[in-house]
Amino acid sequence: MNSESRAGSSIARRAGRPTAPLLSVASIASAAIGLLDESGDFTMSELARRLGVGPSALYNHVAGKEEVLARVRELVSDRIDTSVFATAPFFEALYLWGRSYRDAFARHPATIAVFATTPLNGAVRTTEMYEHVVQAFLDAGWPDSDVMVALVALENFILGAALDAVAPAEMFDLSDPDDAPALSRVIQSRRSTAGGRRASDASFEAGLEALLTGMRVRLARLAHPGLGEGGPST
Q1: What are the structural domains of the chain?
Q2: What is the pLDDT of residue 47?
Q3: How many CA atoms, within 13 angstroms, populate the side-chain half-sphere of residue 110?
Q4: In this model, does residue 14 exceed pLDDT 90?
Q5: DSSP assigned state of 233
Q6: What is the DSSP letter of 204?
Q7: What's the rounded mean pLDDT across residues 55-72?
Q8: Residue 84 binned pLDDT confidence (cut-offs 50, 70, 90)
Q9: Exposed/middle/buried for 139, CB within 10 Å: 0-12, 13-18, 19+?
Q10: pLDDT at site 232
Q11: Could you tell me which residues come within 8 angstroms of residue 137 by beta carbon, excluding any fewer than 6 positions away?
């Protein structure tokens, strides 16, 4: 074999060798969210195995698990629609935002518990999402001191609703309805009036409507401190 043939054979062998997996921050975050969906948590070693690389390879792209979680948070929050605040009145936009927020986390319910104890810092796009929402509160006349009170109250309900959206439909079913006849009766009534609508959807819509109604009242009281003194009427 002449030198030209040997060179061509060497090039062919190199071209045919399997290449190492191409890593990026996006591919790492995507693999991490898959592990969270499957088991609720992950280690960096497990993440490396999922991607087919050694653990050290991950650290060429991310500083550690905290940064991975920040990127995962962005993947989830990217699906939360903040554009509605530019096109709809505040409370209508808040309703639409709440629905998209619930749907985003219902797709990845395991992330709820993780993010409840993970600082927001580092999740740039998620921070931008919050900035849009907070600015909408301020533009609607909400005082600075009460924006996070209202926002976190909404989030608490929305995230609970995201878990309910993926809960088994028979959560309240009883083997013997006579054990709790009132409970059994209202469960049956809900089924007969649902009309094909999921119970979790109906509960979410009812809860969100009630929250937004209460927030309208709260905003009015904050704007006029003397209004409704003495607490809610009975």
Answers
A1: 22-62 (1.10.10.60), 80-223 (1.10.357.10)
A2: 97
A3: 13
A4: no
A5: -
A6: H
A7: 94
A8: very high
A9: exposed
A10: 47
A11: 90, 147, 150, 151
Structure tokens at 187: 């469960």
Structure tokens at 49: 């195995």
CA 216, CA 95: separation in Å to the nearest integer? 12
Mean pLDDT of the region 63-67: 94
Decide if 35 contacts 72 (C-beta within 8 A): no
Among 6-15, 143-152, 200-209, where is mean pLDDT lowest? Answer: 6-15
Q: What is the mean pLDDT of residues 37-64?
A: 95
* Distance of alpha carbon 204 from alpha carbon 164, whole angstroms: 9
Residue 34: Cβ within 10 Å count: 15
Cβ-proximal residues to 88 (8 Å cutoff; 6+ apart), any chain:
96
Q: Give the integer Cα–Cα distance in Å for 225 and 30.
A: 48
Task: For Cα atoms 70, 94, 136, give the angle at the middle one, nearest 5 degrees.
Answer: 75
